[in-house]
Each structure stands twice: as structure tokens, then as C-alpha cells.
Amino acid sequence: MSLETEKGNSPEVKIGTNRKTRKGVFWPAFLIVGGGAVLGIVNNKMLADISMNGFLGSLRGLGWLYQIISIVALVIVALVTFSKLGKVRLGGEDAKPKFSFPVWFAMALTGGIATGVITYGVNEPIIYLGNIYGEMEQTGIKPGTSEAAIFAMGRSFYNWTFIPYAMYSLSGLVVAYMYFNRKKSLSVTATLIPLFGEKITKGVWTSIIDTLAVLAIALGLASSLGAGLALVGSGIETTYGIQQGPIMWLVLTFLITGTFTLSALKGLDKGIRILSDINAKVFYIILITIIIIGPTLYILRTSTAGMGYWLQNFWAWGLDPIDMGGEALVMWWTLYDWAIWIAYAPLMGIFLAIISHGRTIREFMFINWILPSVFSIVWFGVWGGTALFWQQNNVIDLVGTIKESGAVAGLWAFLANLPLGSILIPVVMLALILSFATAADSMVRTISSLCTENIKHDEEPAKWKKLLWALSIATIAFVMVAYAGGAQGVDGVKYLAALGGSTVLFIFVLQVASAIKMFFIDKVEK
């Protein structure tokens, strides 16, 4: 087996030059994703219709399962973290971690956060407050009131913190434990061995399972890139008066895709690690700036009340398949969120596992579950709290901006109203590009690894695979934004996200069951 190495400040990173392609995973997944890209170019309406019907069908029919499995995942993650299982070290008692805590957290946070918190840190609470798409119709709360503001904060906390990060963490832990401690292959299929035995890794099943995981993350990435295109485009239009449209989105697609593709080609140590560190620091600077210049007391009070409202309604929200809150609130927000998090989970789990060698399970959960959840609470508290304060005190009409210009438009009006708005707007645009690029390069690497036979965690997949997947995902994202924006401006990419989640939902359910058997029934390998 021929291996090349790249040398730098970190331990050697191997590049498998003679690793064979897993044809049973690569070709089915690429033909579907690449076929979707071609279909989007040839007949974008057909692609949009297929995606929309899949979106509506999967969330209406499987909403109950999304809600139940999300709660179960949360409970398992909490039990594993705070029990004696938390002391188990990934890789064995003598394993040493490769990355420091700050670098590790930066990679874990920015690798999974994509553009979400920037896109919706302002927009989601304001949309709830103003009942813009009918979110408050079945809640009994009057839009625009103080109670509506507290609801908006609490619901945002619910959608963006401990439950979704539990999904990532659970998948990542199962992958890491099976690979480093049980010495199984680095794949989604290997996580199901506790349930089905070694036979699941042989024959057609391993190809089917890993192919579905690749499809899910490819569609999820396309949706995230699409949301980023729509958001940056609206920012350029709002701030600089340049009309957004297919040409602007195409230019942005080339810019963002070029950034994450170059980083992915550089590999884990020279690309992803450095880009993650830069991205995380941009996040911290933006957050601290808004804390200093925002309505600090209102932020603290509304965040505290929002957490209370969230905890008070936790079980009702957590087990509502649509019937209590209604489609506008539950399907288009919470279930959509769960779908895209689950779409990312199996392959994000592989990435989180790769960078967690040598850490204990408790450390793994602290970095991948607890800290990102706390970060999201602070982020939504600061961004959302400031936006809600301005809206209620008639400082700026963010509700009107979103009604006029789409679901992602409020952010730019919000930033323009800050004292340092002219400086912050380009910084946030940079953060958006970096955020997606950081998530995409880690996932393109993981997709390419899953399409390669017997690849190890410290090896890089072939560069041509990374490039091919990056271009296919970028094409679908551009088509869905340019031709399937819909009422919210990002409907098309939401359709893609739900399709990605529904393709891998049942695999995630099996991963949850596998975790239960592995950690609470079988003997734990230390």
C-alpha cells in the first residue's frame, strides 16, 4: 500500500494514493447527487417540485418520529456524559489527543454550525415575534407583545441548543467508540454492529447504509450553501443596493465553493484546522462587540425569561408532531431543524470522531454537546435579544423588513442600525463565507473518506473525489436558490434539507438503538 505524507507542525498526515474507491457507495450517491445537479440545470422546476413534495411528505408523515428520537437521543447523551461511562477514553487508556482544547472546540463548533446561527440569530426570533408566516396562530399568544418576545427567545433556544447538538454528539460518539475502542471500520455501517453483528458490514447492506448517509449530508450541505447564498445576496442588496439574482448568486457560489474546496484539498491540519480557528475568532469578536453595544440588561432579562419559558414547555414542544403548534411553527421550524441536523449527524459524527482521538467520553460531550449548546444560548440571547428590544421599542422595523424582503433579510437591517454597522456588515459576510466553508470542507472530506476503501482516520482521501463532490453540491445549491426561493426566499433549500434528513432518519434511529445496546447492555471496552 503506497502512502504519501505531508509534514508540518502536526503529526504526519497520510494521503492514501492507492486506496480503492468504494464503488457501491461512490457511484449510487454520485449519480443521484450529480443527476440532481444536471436535472436542476436542465429542468429546475422538476427538481424544485420533487424536493417540495419530499419535504411536505416526510415532515407531515414522520414528524412524530423526529420528535421522539430527538428526545431519546438527548436522554442517552446526558446519561453517558454524567455516568461512569464518561471516564472511558476514546482509543484506550494510553491514547493521546492530537489537538488542544481551544483548537478542538473551534473545529467541532464551526464544522457543524454552518451558516445557521448567523442566518437565524436575528431573523428567527423576529419572525416569531411578528407572526410573519403564521407561527403564532395556534399558540394563543398575541404577536408583538412582551410574552411573544419571551416565547421567541425560548423557542429559539429550544431549536438551537441541547437537542440538536445531542444528535451530532450521539452519532460522533458511536463512530468514535466503534472505531477507536472496538477497532471497527471508520463508517456509518460499523456503528450498527452492536445491533446486527458483523454481518451488517458485509454484502449490500454496508453500501446501502453508507450511500444513504452520503446522500443526506450532500443534500444538507447543498441546503446550507443555498441559505448562505440567499443571506449574503440579500445583504449585498440591502447594504450596497446591488440587485441580487442568478448572476450574483453564481459569483457567490464560485467564491464560497472555491474557499471550502481549497481548504478541503489542503487537508485536516493545513486547511480545516486553520480555517476553523479563524472562523471561531471572528464569531467571538462579533459576539463580544454586540454584547458591549447592545441593550445588555434587556438581553439578560429576556434570555433568563426565555430559558424559563423553554423549560416550562419542554415536553409539550418536544412531543408535538405538528398538531399543537401548527405547521407554520413546528414543521417549518423545529422539524425542519431536526431534519437538517439528522441529515448531518452520521457523517458529522465521523468528522467529530476523527478529531477526538485520545479524549474521554465526558470531554467529547463537553466539547461537542455542552459547550456548543451554551454558545448558541449566548448567541441567540445577544443577537435575538437586541433585535427584539429594537422591534418592541420602535428603533427599527425588522418585522416589516422581513415581510418585504424575505426570511433572511432582517439581519442586514439589524447590523446597519448598530453604531459599527458599516464595519460589522462586511465582517459578518466574511463570517458567513467562512462558516459555510468550514462546515463544507470537513464534510466534503468525510464524504470522500466514506467513498474510499479501508481508509484510516489519519489519512486524506483523494483530491479528485473532494473536488467532484464540492462541485456537485455547489451546483444543486445554486439551482435551488436561483429557481426555488419561494415565499421565504429559502424554501428550495429547506426542501433539500428535509429530504436529506428523511433519507437517513431510520439509520439515525438505528444508531440510537445501537448506542443503548452498546453502552447500557453490552460490556464497555475501555
TrEMBL record:
Record bears the keyword Membrane: yes
Presence of keyword Cell membrane = yes
Q: Which residues form the signal peptide?
A: none
Q: What's a Pfam family this protein contains?
A: BCCT
What GO CC terms are in its UniProt record?
Answer: plasma membrane
Q: How does it sit in the membrane?
A: Multi-pass membrane protein
Q: What name appears for this protein in its UniProt entry?
A: Choline-glycine betaine transporter
